[in-house]
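Exercise (ungraded).
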Amino acid sequence: MDLEQKTELVSDALEKLYGAPEPDIEEDVLECLILTVLSQNTNDVNRDKGFAVLKERYPTWEEVLDADVEDIADAIKIAGLSGQKSRTIKNFLTWLKAEYGELDLEFIREMETKDAIPLLSQHKGIGIKTVSVTLAFACGRDVFPVDTHVLRISKRLGFVPSNCTAEKAHELMPQIIPKGEAYPFHMNLIAFGRQICDARKPKCDQCPITTHCLYYRGEL
Ligand code: SF4
């Protein structure tokens, strides 16, 4: 069985467990990108709390742009890495205003994915995962973000080599994922990683895809 067939079977098995989620393409593109920056190295709860405080103190992106980096960092501190994230946010907003005249990323919806990826990922602190999440979640593009759960499971299943980095996995995974399945497959792998294929103690006795798993067979 080749890897394309294997991802298709795993994707189908996970859809039986979790359904086929669809992205909320009504989501504001800039808001999605900033939320994704805040999500780095933290959980969804603290990401959302950091974002809520930021919006409470600075209701518009113009106000965030005008704020000092230290004050932005203070607003988002619950999300962690606040010094780094505040610089990323400020630098990105500064670029957006200078290049496009307004703090609005909706124009990304009109761009081809191959052009949007380098445009957004040229900025320090905005890597391929952040860009992929923004394009998949807010714009409904068929791109596949690789987070820590997705990378771990992809290695266990042999989709990518055991020493593969997240960056490299962003190149490899799109080559083997069924067309149109990137978003549901990503979401379902995350749910599966949280509920069954845990990092430390995977619940292999509850797993519907043991036949596809190198880890289960002791081959990793
Ligand atoms: S068999 Fe275990 S390690 Fe392999 S995918 Fe299933 S839960 Fe994860």
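Further reading is listed at the end of the chapter. For now, observe: The chain has a mean pLDDT of 97. The two ends are 19 Å apart (CA to CA).
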